[in-house]
Every structure is written in C-alpha cells, then in structure tokens.
Design a protein that fits this description.
With 175 residues, this protein is α+β, with helices and mostly antiparallel strands. The protein contains 6 helices and 7 strands, in the order H-E-H-E-E-E-H-E-H-E-H-H-E. The chain has a 4-stranded mixed β-sheet with strand order 1-4-7-6, with no helix packed on it. It has a 3-stranded antiparallel β-sheet with strand order 3-2-5. The longest helix is centred in the N-terminal third of the chain and has 17 residues.
Amino acid sequence: MKLLGAVLLAAGLLGTVALGEQPPRPEEPSRTCFFQMLDSTDRDFCRGDLEIIYPEVGDVGCMYVPKCHQYRRRISREWGSPRVRYPQAEKGADLRTGDIKGRVLTDYVRPTPPPRSGYHRYQLRLYEQPAQVAIALSPQEWVSPGAWAMESFVKQFRLGSPVASTQFLTKYYED
C-alpha cells in the first residue's frame, strides 16, 4: 500500500511538470488541499465505517472540513444533504450504497456554525431499529429538531448502542 501511494504521488508530481503548470502566484489561493483527521479524543467517537459523502470532497467522516476550495462555505450554503453509506450493511441494502429510502423524521439542515465560534461537531449515529417498533417524533421534537435529548429518544425506542457512528468538525466558512 505504501508503494502504491508513493507511485501515485510521484505520478501526480510528474504530471504537473509534464503539463508545464506553474506554481500558483502568491495572490492566488493554493490548489493544494490538506485534509486533517480528528485527534484521538474525537476520533474515538468514529466507529463502524459510517461514511458522510459530499460532492467533490468525498467522505468527511472523522475529519476536519478544510477551508480550501471553499468546502466549508459549500457545505454550509450550497450543497444539499450528504450521501450516507454503511459498507457493512447487508448486501443489496440501500444503506450499503448510500441510496437511502424510507420515512423521513426530520429534514436535513446544513451545518451552520456561527462566526468566530470555533469548530463544531456534526455527528451521525446509526442504530438498528428493533423489529415491530415504529419510530416517530413527538410534537415537541418535531417543532425543534436537534433540541431534544438524544438519550431519551434512544431509550424510548429501545435502540441500544449505535451500530456505527462518525462525525466531522467544521467552523464558519470565513474564519
């Protein structure tokens, strides 16, 4: 695997030289984008290979969303809901491919951290729904999604521990 990575890196560097591309001018933003994995404390939350896939960025699970290429702005203002995949799902399952169908409990809300407030965690947890248990939001939960106690919800519907979980951290796009 290390050899393949070195070959791909070398091919990328050679491709730049062969095409005669010049390094970006100082006033131009860098074309290079560095993705940083979460530190060990936040990384411990990520388990089970749950993927959060945004256009052009790919899987942002267990990482900081970089500012380059306006990814933070695009996640907060432009792109719709990410594709969520769970490769360990049963073969043929919608969750395995990220083409999820079913009853929506709440609509997707884009990550919108306030200016100058630092990084915010956006978490996804995957639970196995017990057979014969219909899950629904209460009127209070419906009115204010995300402002209710997750632990109470999990206990009420006997969901147990998550099968998989992941998170990403992002901050206001102009910070």
